[in-house]
């Protein structure tokens, strides 16, 4: 029986250290992490790897439920996949485990709260952007990728996969920069 930790933050500039330290302190022998949005499962390759790796009796450990996902259906589907492998999920804060039925109920409720929180965040963000646009101070989001560097690497003969590895982004982002930059 293995305790396998999974840590996630949404953006490249966020820090995983607190989650990683907590998971190791909780006895997770293996900890996988990634910097990708939890809004969907798309692009969450480390999570897919963890789920594939789970065996009967193993435990998937996350620090908070929103590290698994922010959509109730997605979280419940993840829990179902984990259980199909004979494993279970443990959330550290608040402490909930799917070993018993009450854990399933609590995960469902917390998943709904996380989804509602995500909607509220998006709504507040949209309202803030609209106010900033109306007052003429909105300049758009800051660019997180060095687009000039990506184009220079392409011009130097590097392929999209190599550029993505070097810059620290997905190939999809590289292709998007190619389309935007010509």
Written description of the protein model:
It is a single chain. By secondary structure, this protein is an alpha/beta fold. The protein folds into two domains: about 5-115, 3-Layer(aba) Sandwich (Rossmann fold); about 145-180. Helices cover about 50% and strands about 15% of the residues. It has a five-stranded mixed β-sheet, sandwiched between helices. The longest helix has about 35 residues, at about 100-135. The radius of gyration is 19 Å and the shape is globular. The model has no long low-confidence stretch (mean pLDDT about 90). This is Recombinase family protein.
Essential attributes:
Rossmann fold; 182 residues; alpha/beta; five-stranded mixed β-sheet
In short:
With 182 residues, the protein is of the alpha/beta class. It has seven helices and five strands, in the order βαβαβαββαααα. The protein has two domains: 111 residues, Resolvase, N-terminal catalytic domain (Rossmann fold), CATH 3.40.50.1390; 35 residues.
């Amino acid at each position: 029986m293995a305790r396998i930790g999974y840590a996630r933050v949404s953006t490249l500039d966020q820090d995983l250290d607190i989650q990683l330290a907590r998971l190791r302190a909780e006895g997770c022998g293996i900890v996988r992490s990634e910097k990708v949005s939890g809004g969907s499962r798309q692009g969450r390759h480390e999570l897919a790897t963890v789920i594939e790796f789970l065996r009967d009796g193993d435990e998937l450990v996350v620090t908070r439920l929103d590290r698994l996902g922010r959509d109730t259906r997605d979280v419940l589907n993840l829990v179902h996949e984990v259980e199909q492998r004979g494993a279970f999920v443990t959330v550290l804060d608040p402490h909930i485990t799917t070993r018993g039925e009450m854990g399933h109920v609590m995960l469902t409720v917390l998943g709904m709260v996380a989804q509602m929180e995500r909607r509220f965040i998006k709504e507040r963000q949209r309202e803030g952007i609209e106010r900033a646009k109306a007052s003429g101070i909105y300049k758009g989001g800051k660019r997180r990728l060095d687009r000039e560097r990506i184009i220079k690497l392409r011009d130097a003969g590097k392929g999209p996969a190599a550029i993505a590895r070097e810059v620290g982004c997905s190939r999809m982002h590289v292709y998007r920069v190619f389309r935007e930059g010509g």
